Amino acid sequence: MLESCPMNRHRVFLLVVNVTLLAAAVLAAAQAAAPIIEITAEPSHHLLFENAYARAFKIDLAPQASMIVHHHRHDYIFTVLAPSKIENDIVGKAPFLRNFQEGETVFVPGPFAHTAKNLTDKPFDVIAVELMQDGKSQSPPLWKVNGDDEERGLHILNGGTHDILFAKDGVRASDLQLNPGGVLPKHHHNGPQVVIAITDLDLRSDVEGKGPVAIRLKAGEVAWVKAGDTHTVTNVGQQNARLITLEF
Predict the structure, then answer these.
(1) With respect to CATH, is domain 142-247 assigned 2.60.120.10?
(2) So what's the pLDDT on residue 44?
(3) Which terminus has fewer CB within 10 Å in the chain: N or C?
């Protein structure tokens, strides 16, 4: 019988190994030959808005799922909406793992192509904001026009914190957290901004010369705010409020 012959067993083993290696090589070649799609065609990326400054996407990658390999042709900033762990596979580089915390905000220089795999049993929810001016923003940036040139720093507020995270490509990213009743003091916006709600927001914006304006966003929602207002911001809700702002 076949099983009783050591030589035959050795030949069968070699055949299985060769078939396995051939299948792996064919799969790798197929992956290498597959076209790299544009970010707008990647199914887990959902376009929220696009203008001359920014193009924003909501990313919702299912548990244990992988993105299709896609291009990032611009620098971008992304904010993670819940604790996550992914494998990031950049074309031409070794894969690497990364853990993220809720609200973590990261600048990523482009261009490059990659895929990412969600390694958790929960969706990977992210807001990604591409910077469409490719580093050619107004110099100095609009947010610096009033002499406000701070690029990093934590400010303790009346009932909250305002943490300036970084400034990249003329865009300043900040993490604003307000307790119920907390206030962000009066300030002016020379340029537009993106607001990303990490929690549900129930805020009041007291705009100089216009009066109060309600700002209500659900966690994960994004708003584009035009330039020009001088205002204070108050958390009029019953829960702590957290948002990320990207000032242009």
Answers:
(1) yes
(2) 98
(3) N
Tokens of 147: 């002499």
- Got the DSSP string for the chain? -GGG-HHHHHHHHHHHHHHHHHHHHHHHHHHHHSPPBPGGG-TTEEEEEE-SSEEEEEEEEPTT-BPPPEEE-S-EEEEESS-EEEEEEETTS--EEEEE-TT-EEEE---EEEEEEE-SSS-EEEEEEEETTTT---SS-GGGTTS----SEEEEEEEEEEEEEEEETTEEEEEEEEEEEEEEEEEE-SS-EEEEESS-EEEEEEETTTEEEEEEE-TT-EEEE-S--EEEEEE-SSS-EEEEEEE-
Considering the domain delimited by 39-131, tell me its CATH architecture.
Answer: Sandwich (2.60)
Query: Which residue in the block uniquely carries the two structure tokens 């696009």?
Result: 50
Q: Which pLDDT belongs to residue 15?
A: 47
Start-end ranges of CATH 2.60.120.10 in the chain? Answer: 39-131, 142-247
Kindly tell me if the per-residue pLDDT of 163 is higher than 50.
Answer: yes
171-188 vs 193-197, strand pairing mode? unpaired
N residues, the chain: 248
Which of 203, 201, 160, 209 minimizes the C-alpha distance to 182?
Answer: 160
